[in-house]
């Protein structure tokens, strides 16, 4: 399925980074997903793929960047904005998810539902993943 019913957006800098990673890994698709893990409930998972799976929604972006999302993960990632930030010598993809109610202190996991836990809130409202192959 080729559409963006998940309403995921990718900034120009994130698009360039993803395109570069796809070229380096010789993959054709990036899978954006979530799994139960981390210190706050869920964490983003990124995988590089040669082809989408039958239950994937494929979202096409500029520069031939194609992002796959499994049907089971659509509800969790719907509305997510993917951006690239650089601080000093470090760069990372960040995920701003409107469904997330809290983020862990390290920024790698998030929670949904319920009231946000003040100690776990990240002031920027972002979760990060460096885009390593999982």
Question: Please, could you describe this protein's structure?
Answer:
The protein contains two helices and ten strands, in the order βαββββαβββββ. The C terminus is likely disordered. The strands form two sheets. A six-stranded mixed sheet has the order 4-5-2-3-9-8. Strands 1-6-7-10 form a four-stranded mixed sheet. Helices cover 13% and strands 41% of the residues. With 134 residues, it is mainly beta. It has a single domain, classed as Hypothetical Protein Aq_1857, Chain: A.
What topology emerges from the helices and strands here?
Elements: E1 9-10, H1 12-25, E2 29-37, E3 41-49, E4 56-60, E5 66-70, H2 74-77, E6 81-87, E7 90-96, E8 100-103, E9 109-112, E10 127-129
Parallel strand pairs: 1-6, 2-5
Antiparallel strand pairs: 2-3, 3-9, 4-5, 6-7, 7-10, 8-9
In a few lines, what is going on in this structure?
The chain is mainly beta and 134 residues long.
> How would you spell out the order of helices and strands?
EHEEEEHEEEEE
Would you identify the CATH architecture?
Answer: Sandwich
Coarse morphology: globular
At CATH level 3, the topology is: Hypothetical Protein Aq_1857, Chain: A
CATH class: Mainly Beta
**Amino- and carboxy-terminal Cα gap:** 24 Å
How many strands, what sense, and barrel or not for the largest sheet? 6 strands, mixed
Mean pLDDT: 80
| Oligomeric description of these chains | single chain
Radius of gyration: 14 Å
Q: Which segments are poorly predicted (pLDDT under 50) over 5 or more consecutive residues?
A: 115-134
The count of β-strands is 10
Share of β-strand residues = 35-45%
